[in-house]
Amino acid sequence: MKILTPLVPAMLVSAFSAQASAAACGSFTIADMNWNSASLIAHVDQFILNNGYQCDAELIPGDSVPTGISMIEKGQPDVAPELWTNSVKEALDKGVADKRLRYAGNALVNGGEEGFWVPAYLVKEYPEMATIEGVIKHADLFKHPESNTKHAFYSCPAGWTCQITAEHLFNALKLADDGFEIIDPGSGAGLAGSISRAYERKQPWFGYYWSPTPVLGKYEMVKVDFGSGTDVDEYRNCTTQPNCQSPKVTMYPPSPVHTITTESFAQNEPEAYGYFEKRGFTNPQMSKLLAWMEDNQADEETAMYYFLETYPDIWQSWVSTDVAKKVESAL
């Protein structure tokens, strides 16, 4: 008995160590996508997980479709923090069905947002401009830069997918019958610049845009209500199709923007997976952060520190008090 007694605490220590090791956060990879919002989210995730959960999260380069396919076929990376899933929905759904992937949560809780917009100061002056009927009623305010008889509608640059949807909805709303003409801004910068110029001069503006973006972070815009509701089937089968001959009026449906993980990650790292289930940004929150990045010419790492230091009320709602204290200490 005297010989066995010293082994008892040793066995307990060993069991405890094994349990602690199993509960500890391990090593995994997060895709650092090549657009600002996704890269910012990836840096935020890495900092919180490494400092709050004692994980070993590594950022690796990523891109939308290739990352999704790589996760399905190779199981790497472990996490895609912001994936616009419509573009690879069929493949992702099959990956989930085959128990290779999981939808962990919503990176953008509202989904990506598209629509026809007018400046908020116009709606303040003319409340009816929050609807398409009100815009048409005041069509004369939207001066065409090259015509005295036409009204301006700013669309997407030629070659962009949103050029197809915006033109179909322009036609479905019969805006040409009310004197509107589509203006091609030439580029994304040209479209953003047209809003910026109008806003700084407090001039009317009417056109297509999307969120989250720096532009909608800087300038308060109102999405025009078509009064039609959202017909998802119409949008998928006609509005988005180049050869659709008879488009009908529908509001843009939200674009799902998920955080995707591999199934093995979800099983091996339950605490980290739980974080991804809770973490998410609203479009206004992300638009403001993107606007700050643009105004300050900040990279994603700098913006990550700015976000964590400036908006603790947002990120602390995703984690426990204990984790929040560890992250604050690291900051």
UniProtKB/TrEMBL annotation:
Keyword annotations of the record: Signal
Domain ABC-type glycine betaine transport system substrate-binding positions: 29-309
GO MF term list: transmembrane transporter activity
One Gene Ontology cellular component: ATP-binding cassette (ABC) transporter complex
Signal peptide stretch: 1-22
Domain of life the protein comes from: Bacteria
SUPFAM superfamilies registered for this protein in UniProt: Periplasmic binding protein-like II
CDD domains per UniProt: PBP2_HisX_like
Protein name, UniProt field: Glycine betaine/proline transport system substrate-binding protein
Organism of origin: Marinomonas pollencensis
